[in-house]
C-alpha cells in the first residue's frame, strides 16, 4: 500500500503549471497517449481494465464504473450516449470545477476513452450554469481537440468517430440526479424518472446511456496511463466481513471548506481521516477553535460529531458513524462557536429550495422541515418540534420508499443526524427561548 | 413584429445538429434569448416553440421549472450578481454579505437596482467554497469577498 508520505498527486499533478489548460502543454506531458492506447485495444478490454481497477464513481453514489458499463445492452445498433454529470451542486463540493477549469484535457481524454469503451460516438457534458470558467475552458479544449483530429471522424485512422457537446444547465440542483439530468438535457423540466429502466437500458433520448462524473473520467484516463496495479496500490481494500463491499481504491479529490485556516481541494489516497484532512491539509480549525461538527461529503450525508473525526473517508467510513455515505468527499468544518440550529436551518432551506416538486413527500416534507426550523430559529419552537422533524424526515425518500429519487433521503439525513447527535443543543436552544441574531426575512425564505 | 431577430434565430438553428431532436435545444435557446433580451417574454416562448416545432406550453413548462429564467414581470438588469448563501459561505459571512450588498443597492434579493444595472440574487452553493464567501457576477466567480471588495465590484459594473 502506498503511504501518505510517498503519495504523489496525479489528478491534480498538472494544475498550477503554466498554461496547464492548453492542448500543447497537455500533450507535452503525455496527454492523449492513454486514448491512443485505448484505440489499439478492443473496447471490451478497456471495460475490463476499468472493471479490474475497482474504480467506483466519484459523483456520490460510488457505483463501480466498469460494472455500470457492462449493463449496456450487448450488440446494440446504437446510438449509445455518454452523459457526463458536470452539474456539481452538492453544497461544499468543488473538485470537478478545479479539474474542468484547470486541466480540461484530462477530463476530455477520460471521456474519449470511456466513449470508445462503451461504443458511444456522442458525449454530452451537462455543465452547471454557474461554472462559467469551466464552460470557457472546456469549450476551448473541445475546439482544440477537433482541430487536432482527436475528436471528429475516424480518429487516428481507427474508424472511431466521436462528437462531444457541451450543454449548460440552468441552476437546478436536481439536474445532478442522473435521470433529472437526462430529462433536462432533453429540454424538459428536470423531473427524475422512475427506475427501472435504468439509463444503461433506456436513458438519454430513450437510448442506452451511461452517466458518469467528471472526476471519474479523470480516473479512467489515469488508469489507462498507469494501469490497474497503480490504481489498486492505494486506498482501502474490500471489507472481508462485507461480501458486497467493492473496496475504495485509488486517489480521491477531497474538498475542505468552512471553519478551517486553509480551505481547498487536495488529492490523497482514498481513506484519509477527517482529522488528517483538517489538521494536515486544511491548516487546522480557524481562530484556534475546536471543531463541533463536520459534514463528511456534502450536506446530504449528515454530520460527524467532534468525537468521530478519526473516521476514514472511504466509501464505508461515514456510514459507520450513521452518515448516509461518503458522498462527494467534501468536508465542511463547523467550529464550536456556531449554533447547530443555524447550520441545520441552512441545510433545510437548501433542500426546500431545491426539491423539484415531483414527489409529494419531498415537496411537502422539505417545505415543512424548513418551516419548523424557521420557527425554532426564531425562538418560537417547542420541544415536540424535534420529534416532528424526525417524523417528517423518516417518511420521505427512497429508503422509506416514498419518492422517486434520493434528493429526499439527502434532505432527511442531516435532520435525523443532527437531532440524534446534537439533541441537547437543540433542546437547550428551544427551552431557553434563544434566538439567533435576528435574521432578515430575505434570509429566512426558501424561494 | 417578431421578438426574436434573425441573428438569434440563426444562433438557435445552429444548435440543431448537436442533438437528435429539436426539443433538446429548449434550454440553450432560452439561454440565448435571456442573455440578449434580459428576460423571456411570452412572445419569445411562442417563437422558440415555433422554431423547435413544439407547443408553446412545452417550452413554457421547461422555462418555468428553472427559476433561472425570468418572464416579463421579472426583467433582469444589465448584470446578475448572485451571493452564495449555502453552508460553506454561510459559515464565513455569506449571509451578511448578501444583506450588505442588498442594502447598498436598496433592493431585496431578486430585485434590480434603480439604475437597471444590477439584479441582486441569492444562490445556493456556487461551488467556489475554497474561496468562501463567494459571489457570481454573470457567470464569473469572485472569491473571498469582503464587504469592501463587494462595494468595489458593484462600482465596477
What is the strand arrangement across the widest sheet of chain A?
8-7-11-9-10
> How does the helix and strand content of chain B classify structurally?
alpha+beta
Residue runs with pLDDT of under 50 for 5 or more positions of chain B: none
Mean pLDDT over the residues of chain B: 97
Describe the structure in your own words.
The complex is a heterodimer of chains A (447) and B (157). With 447 residues, chain A is an alpha/beta fold. Chain A folds into 3 domains: 12-233, Rossmann fold; 250-335, Ubiquitin-like (UB roll) (Roll), CATH 3.10.20.600; 340-444, NADH-ubiquinone oxidoreductase 51kDa subunit, iron-sulphur binding domain (de novo design (two linked rop proteins), Up-down Bundle). Chain A contains 17 helices and 11 strands. Chain A has helices spanning 23-28, 33-39, 43-53, 65-70, 95-102, 104-118, 132-147, 178-185, 214-232, 274-281, 317-320, 340-354, 360-377, 384-394, 407-421, 423-431, 441-444, and strands spanning 81-86, 122-127, 163-168, 209-213, 235-236, 248-249, 251-258, 264-269, 291-295, 304-305, 330-335. In chain A, the strands form 3 sheets. A 5-stranded mixed sheet of chain A has the order 8-7-11-9-10, sandwiched between helices. Chain A is globular, with a radius of gyration of 22 Å. The N and C termini of chain A lie far apart (49 Å). The relative contact order of chain A is 0.12. Chain B has 2 domains: 6-72, NADH-quinone oxidoreductase subunit E (Arc Repressor Mutant, subunit A, Orthogonal Bundle); 76-156, Glutaredoxin.
Main attributes?
heterodimer; A: about 450 residues; alpha/beta; Rossmann fold; Ubiquitin-like (UB roll); de novo design (two linked rop proteins); 3 domains; five-stranded mixed β-sheet; four-stranded parallel β-sheet; about 40% helix; globular; B: about 160 residues; alpha+beta; Arc Repressor Mutant, subunit A; Glutaredoxin; 2 domains; 7 helices; 4 strands; about 10% strand
Question: What layout of secondary structure does this protein have?
Answer:
The complex is a heterodimer of chains A (447) and B (157).
Chain A (H helix, E strand, L loop, with lengths): L22 H6 L4 H7 L3 H11 L11 H6 L10 E6 L8 H8 L1 H15 L3 E6 L4 H16 L15 E6 L9 H8 L23 E5 H19 L2 E2 L11 E2 L1 E8 L5 E6 L4 H8 L9 E5 L8 E2 L11 H4 L9 E6 L4 H15 L5 H18 L6 H11 L12 H15 L1 H9 L9 H4 L3
Helix pairs in contact in A: 2-6, 2-9, 3-6, 3-9, 5-6, 5-7, 6-9, 12-13, 12-15, 13-14, 13-15, 14-15
Chain B lengths: L5 H8 L12 H12 L4 H11 L3 H10 L13 E6 L2 H4 L3 H12 L12 E6 L11 E3 L2 E3 L4 H10 L1
Helix pairs in contact in B: 2-3, 3-4, 6-7
Amino acid at each position: 500500500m502506498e503511504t501518505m508520505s510517498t503519495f504523489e498527486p496525479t489528478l491534480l499533478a498538472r494544475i498550477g503549471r503554466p498554461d496547464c489548460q492548453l492542448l500543447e502543454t497537455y500533450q507535452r506531458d503525455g496527454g492523449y497517449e492513454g486514448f491512443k492506447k485505448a484505440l489499439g485495444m478492443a473496447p471490451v478490454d478497456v471495460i475490463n481494465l476499468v472493471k479490474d481497477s475497482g474504480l467506483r464513481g466519484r459523483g456520490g453514489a460510488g457505483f463501480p464504473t466498469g460494472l455500470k458499463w457492462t449493463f449496456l445492452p450487448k450488440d446494440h445498433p446504437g446510438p449509445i450516449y455518454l452523459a457526463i454529470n458536470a452539474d456539481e451542486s452538492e453544497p461544499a463540493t468543488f473538485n470537478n470545477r478545479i479539474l474542468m477549469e484547470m486541466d480540461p484535457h484530462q477530463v476530455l481524454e477520460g471521456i474519449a476513452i470511456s466513449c470508445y469503451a462503451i461504443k458511444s460516438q456522442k458525449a454530452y457534458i451537462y455543465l452547471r450554469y454557474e461554472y462559467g470558467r469551466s464552460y470557457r475552458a472546456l469549450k476551448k479544449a473541445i475546439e482544440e481537440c477537433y482541430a487536432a483530429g482527436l475528436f471528429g471522424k475516424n480518429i487516428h485512422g481507427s474508424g472511431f468517430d466521436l462528437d462531444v457537446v457541451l450543454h449548460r444547465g440552468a441552476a437546478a440542483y436536481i439536474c445532478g440526479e442522473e435521470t433529472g439530468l437526462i430529462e433536462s438535457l432533453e429540454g424538459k423540466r428536470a423531473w427524475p424518472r422512475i427506475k427501472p429502466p435504468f439509463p444503461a437500458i433506456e436513458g438519454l433520448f430513450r437510448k442506452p446511456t451511461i452517466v458518469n462524473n467528471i472526476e471519474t473520467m479523470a480516473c479512467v484516463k489515469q488508469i489507462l496511463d498507469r494501469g490497474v496495479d497503480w490504481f489498486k496500490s492505494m486506498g482501502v481494500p474490500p471489507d472481508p466481513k462485507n461480501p458486497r463491499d467493492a473496496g475504495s481504491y485509488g486517489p480521491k479529490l477531497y474538498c475542505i471548506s468552512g471553519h478551517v485556516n486553509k480551505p481547498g481541494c487536495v488529492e490523497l489516497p482514498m481513506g484519509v481521516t477527517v482529522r488528517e484532512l483538517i489538521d494536515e491539509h486544511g491548516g487546522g480549525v480557524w481562530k484556534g477553535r475546536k471543531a463541533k461538527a463536520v459534514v463528511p461529503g456534502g450536506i446530504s450525508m449528515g454530520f460527524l460529531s467532534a468525537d468521530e473525526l478519526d473516521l476514514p473517508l472511504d466509501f464505508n467510513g461515514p456510514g459507520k458513524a450513521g452518515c448516509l455515505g461518503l458522498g462527494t468527499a467534501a468536508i465542511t468544518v463547523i467550529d464550536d462557536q456556531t449554533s447547530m440550529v443555524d447550520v441545520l436551518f441552512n441545510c433545510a432551506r437548501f433542500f426546500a429550495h431545491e426539491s423539484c416538486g415531483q414527489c409529494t413527500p419531498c415537496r411537502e416534507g422539505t417545505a415543512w422541515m424548513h418551516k419548523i426550523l424557521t420557527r425554532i430559529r426564531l425562538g418560537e419552537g417547542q420541544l415536540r418540534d424535534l420529534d416532528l422533524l424526525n417524523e417528517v424526515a423518516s417518511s420521505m425518500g427512497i429508503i422509506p420508499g416514498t419518492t422517486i429519487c434520493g434528493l429526499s433521503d439527502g434532505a432527511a439525513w442531516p435532520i435525523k443526524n443532527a437531532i440524534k447527535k446534537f439533541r441537547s443543543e437543540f433542546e437547550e436552544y428551544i427551552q431557553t427561548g434563544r434566538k439567533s441574531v435576528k435574521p432578515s426575512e430575505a434570509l429566512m425564505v426558501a424561494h | 413584429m417578431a421578438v426574436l431577430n434573425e441573428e438569434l434565430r440563426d444562433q438557435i438553428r445552429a444548435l440543431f445538429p448537436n442533438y437528435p431532436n429539436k426539443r433538446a435545444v429548449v434550454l440553450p435557446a432560452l439561454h440565448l434569448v435571456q442573455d440578449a433580451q434580459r428576460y423571456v417574454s411570452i412572445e419569445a416562448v411562442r417563437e422558440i416553440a415555433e422554431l423547435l416545432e413544439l407547443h408553446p406550453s412545452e417550452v413554457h413548462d421547461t422555462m418555468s421549472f428553472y427559476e433561472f429564467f425570468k418572464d416579463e414581470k421579472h426583467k433582469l438588469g444589465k448584470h446578475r450578481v448572485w451571493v452564495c448563501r449555502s453552508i460553506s459561505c454561510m459559515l464565513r459571512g455569506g449571509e451578511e454579505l448578501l444583506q450588505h450588498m442588498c442594502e447598498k443597492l436598496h433592493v431585496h434579493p431578486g430585485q434590480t437596482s434603480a439604475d437597471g444595472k444590477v439584479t441582486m440574487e441569492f444562490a445556493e452553493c456556487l461551488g467556489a467554497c475554497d474561496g468562501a464567501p463567494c459571489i457570481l457576477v454573470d457567470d464569473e466567480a469572485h472569491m473571498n469577498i469582503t464587504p469592501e471588495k463587494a462595494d468595489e465590484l458593484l462600482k465596477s459594473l
